[in-house]
Specification:
Elements: H1 9-60, H2 64-152
Length: 153
């Protein structure tokens, strides 16, 4: 009997590759999320430092120009925080989408793997049945050859 051959092996390989690519894409989006989160954290720390300086200047009675400049700088830092928060939100959305694609790729590969396992199991059963049939035929032939010899004696 021929060795087992799965007719959809090339599709199975493509699905494994698709799954691997999806895993890599998900990993990249997670790295992007971490980078965006660090960027937001740094922007928030900068904003807090700017606000502390502004408060200190207000308490010490600084000139209006200095306070105006510090307030403008804090506004810039707030805008930066909002922008980085938006980047983080987009990175999280992209990570969620990449996760969805990865789970779909895993599911598609698993379906084909189960089909492969069933096909291989059926082939093994058929192989064993054919092998048993061959042994049975040999036994019958041997038995009939033994009967023929006993009839000749």
């Amino acid at each position: 009997m021929k060795a087992f051959h799965f007719p959809l092996e090339s599709l199975r390989t493509l699905r494994q590759q698709r799954e691997h690519i999806a895993q890599q894409g998900y990993a990249r989006t997670l790295v992007a999320c971490d980078d965006a989160a660090r960027g937001l954290q740094l922007a928030q720390q900068e904003l807090q430092a700017g606000q502390r300086v502004l408060v200190q200047e207000l308490q010490t009675g600084a000139v209006a120009d200095r306070i105006l400049n510090l307030r403008t700088w804090c506004t810039v830092l707030e805008i930066r925080c909002h922008e980085r928060a938006a980047v983080l939100a987009e990175a999280r959305r992209a990570a969620a989408e990449a996760f969805r694609q990865m789970t779909a790729a895993v599911r598609d590969r698993q379906v084909l793997d189960r089909f492969h396992e069933k096909a291989q199991h059926l082939w093994q059963r058929k192989f064993l049945a054919d092998e048993q049939k061959m042994f049975d035929e040999l036994a019958v032939q041997r038995q009939s050859a033994g009967l023929d010899k006993s009839l000749l004696n």
